[in-house]
Amino acid sequence: MVASAEFFIRMRTKLKKFASLPYILIHRTLMLTGLLVWLAIATLAFYGYQLLQPIPTVDNISFSQARTLAEEKFNTRWVSLKNVNRDLIYSIVLSEDSHFFSHTGIDYDALIAALGDNIKKREWRFGASTISQQAVKNLYLSQEKTLARKLQELIITQRLEAKLSKNEILELYLNIIEFGPELYGIGNASQYYFNKSPQEINAAEGAYLALLMPSPRKYHYTLYQNGNWSPALSKKHHRIIRDMRFKELISNSQYKSYNKWRYDKEDYL
């Protein structure tokens, strides 16, 4: 009888523990949910605070004011758009933002595609920036990669597009973009890499400059200093030349010649 009593006592204890398991699970689930909600609120508050910081105003800006700001911020040799070879202009536009002349500052199709790619890869890479967005980022904002900064960029880009013409935005962009370590603007880049003025740069040379732009310091070392034409860079150079031929910006003979072209520093001394 004693054994039976002890048996029932142990069983009752186990049943009590078993019965309490759902409550423990519910309690822990609620705690975890609360923590996640708190983190979400904190994150939204953080980005909301950043987004509400004063946004540089461009509502009343003129092209001359934007140019003055650019010249103060960057050590650039200013070149008017009319003094840049058409082939150089289009080699960069086709590489960086082929829909530049048709969109209103933001390429929504590219933005949605980039967002889908980010979700797929579970990362945020802040891609799909148009020429207008890049001009805004370099001229008015920091280089930090945050969602708040990206949202500010989108807002200012829309305002800038409403104030300046496409040619004015393009001229700003070409004069402030980086082509190497502390090497800003198409004037400095043309002189540094080719010992020429921007008016003299052809499509093949322009496509070479376009290769440097995504990561100018990295490619200044690998491509310019070491002459490392990786398969990916060769493919991109060919694509730019092909696109220019497709749009009839260069002749068929130029297309064939430029596809064989390779940069050699000795040719430009």
From TrEMBL:
<dbReference type="InterPro" id="IPR001264">
    <property type="entry name" value="Glyco_trans_51"/>
</dbReference>
<feature type="transmembrane region" description="Helical">
    <location>
        <begin position="21"/>
        <end position="49"/>
    </location>
</feature>
<dbReference type="GO" id="GO:0009252">
    <property type="term" value="P:peptidoglycan biosynthetic process"/>
</dbReference>
<dbReference type="InterPro" id="IPR023346">
    <property type="entry name" value="Lysozyme-like_dom_sf"/>
</dbReference>
<keyword id="KW-0573">Peptidoglycan synthesis</keyword>
<dbReference type="InterPro" id="IPR036950">
    <property type="entry name" value="PBP_transglycosylase"/>
</dbReference>
<dbReference type="GO" id="GO:0008360">
    <property type="term" value="P:regulation of cell shape"/>
</dbReference>
<dbReference type="GO" id="GO:0009274">
    <property type="term" value="C:peptidoglycan-based cell wall"/>
</dbReference>
<dbReference type="GO" id="GO:0071555">
    <property type="term" value="P:cell wall organization"/>
</dbReference>
<keyword id="KW-0328">Glycosyltransferase</keyword>
<dbReference type="Pfam" id="PF00912">
    <property type="entry name" value="Transgly"/>
</dbReference>
<dbReference type="GO" id="GO:0016020">
    <property type="term" value="C:membrane"/>
</dbReference>
<keyword id="KW-0472">Membrane</keyword>
<dbReference type="InterPro" id="IPR011812">
    <property type="entry name" value="Pep_trsgly"/>
</dbReference>
<keyword id="KW-0812">Transmembrane</keyword>
<keyword id="KW-0808">Transferase</keyword>
<protein>
    <recommendedName>
        <fullName>Glycosyl transferase family 51 domain-containing protein</fullName>
    </recommendedName>
</protein>
<feature type="domain" description="Glycosyl transferase family 51">
    <location>
        <begin position="71"/>
        <end position="244"/>
    </location>
</feature>
<dbReference type="GO" id="GO:0016763">
    <property type="term" value="F:pentosyltransferase activity"/>
</dbReference>
<keyword id="KW-0961">Cell wall biogenesis/degradation</keyword>
<keyword id="KW-1133">Transmembrane helix</keyword>
<keyword id="KW-0133">Cell shape</keyword>
<keyword id="KW-1003">Cell membrane</keyword>
<keyword id="KW-0997">Cell inner membrane</keyword>
